[in-house]
Amino acid sequence: MRPIVHLADRDDAIAFPAFYTFVSPALRAVARGPLRRARHAGRTCEGPAGERWCAECEATADDLLRQSFNRLRSALTGPVPTTRSGEPVREMTLVRDHLLSAAARDEDIATWAKALQGEGNDAEPAWLRAARAQLVHYPLRHLEEGTRRTDAVSRGASARPERDLRQAAWAAPLREDAAILDMLTLVVFRMRRRVSDPFQVPDDLRVRHGLTQAEAARRMGTALASLRAVNPGFFAANIDESAIGHGPEPAADPQQALLATQEAARARAVVANLLRTGADDPEPRATRRKTYQDVVAAMCALGNGRPADPVAVAAKGLGVAPDRAERLVRRLAVLVAAAGLEWTSELAGE
Questions:
Q1: What gap in Å lies between CA 268 and CA 338, rounded to an integer?
Q2: Phi and psi (nearest 5°) for 108?
Q3: What ranges do the domains of the chain cover?
Q4: Of 310, 293, 294, 292, residue with least CA distance to 37
Q5: Entry pTM
């Protein structure tokens, strides 16, 4: 047995391995979702051999673990971190006091490491809940957005592209047309979050600027072309041109606009029916209806840049394997894309 008091040992060679055993499994479990969403478009992260994460995610996890370790060491050897009001963080005080107590000499790290991976409850020790909050969740509070920004900057993109569009001198010509500025701001936001339909003009933006669907499609094409002309470097770094070729084709043909409208109407009818009745196959309707509602809500949350895992929701709600749940989510994603993310979000109450 290795006692948990080793976390408080003055020798880092003893303290860090103990900390790794205690915190790493829980930290990696919580970090998995944000890293998948930020770096892998929600897909599973795997290394070359399939046993570990990719090199980038492994490095991120190691950095987070080191930051958490340093935060604990600081509390053990010096002043406890303080709140904005200057008060010591109570949770960190609880962790420190327990690790320095006599009881910690007889407690097994492996046992508490397994408990730390749980969601927590009132029956577990207060110091363990505090350790979960301070050593696992606190270091990950900005993980998803921070990873998106770091990865974007590493490939030459802007750290704050929406700020550049609204404030940079080079973007002044783009700000002369409010609709174009709003569309470009939306596109770079969606690109950063790998939304499946980044160039679709949402209904609220279209209505705000008094545009029909055909006009909105044309203005989106104009917006992208204008950005490429004004700042090719910014465009290349922040817009995935492979997703649009040479930009969306203007919907100048009324028949083309009509067909697009009809396709969206059909998709919306199917989505509305699924959410209302769950009528997709002979399985129990009530179970499927609630599952569809939860899955679509998770998809909309993910599309709008909030943490969600629709595949996990589908797998749990239907009691099916992840690969089958993923096929369901992909099928629903096609319908949601055709129906429109904003429309579906409003229908799902998301």
A1: 8
A2: -80, 130
A3: 4-145, 156-243, 254-347
A4: 310
A5: 0.51
End-to-end, the C-alpha distance of the chain in Å comes to 48
| AA letter at 115 | A
Tell me the pLDDT of the chain averaged across its residues. 81
289, 276 in Cβ contact below 8 A?
yes
Whole-number pLDDT of residue 247: 40
Q: Contact 144/34 with Cβ under 8 angstroms?
A: yes
Q: Give one DSSP letter per residue of 74-85, joined into a string.
A: HHHHSPPPB-TT
Question: What is the mean predicted confidence (pLDDT) over 187-193?
Answer: 80
Bridge partner list, 82: 88
> Where do we find the tokens 């060679």?
13
Region 91-95: mean pLDDT is 93
Tally helices (H) and strands (E) across the chain.
16, 0
Chain segment 246-263, per-residue pLDDT in tens: 344 444 444 444 445 666
Reading the block at residue 186, the tokens are 């939306």
Q: Of the candidates 114, 136, 247, which has an alpha carbon nearest to the alpha carbon of residue 184? A: 247
d(CA 230, CA 221): 14
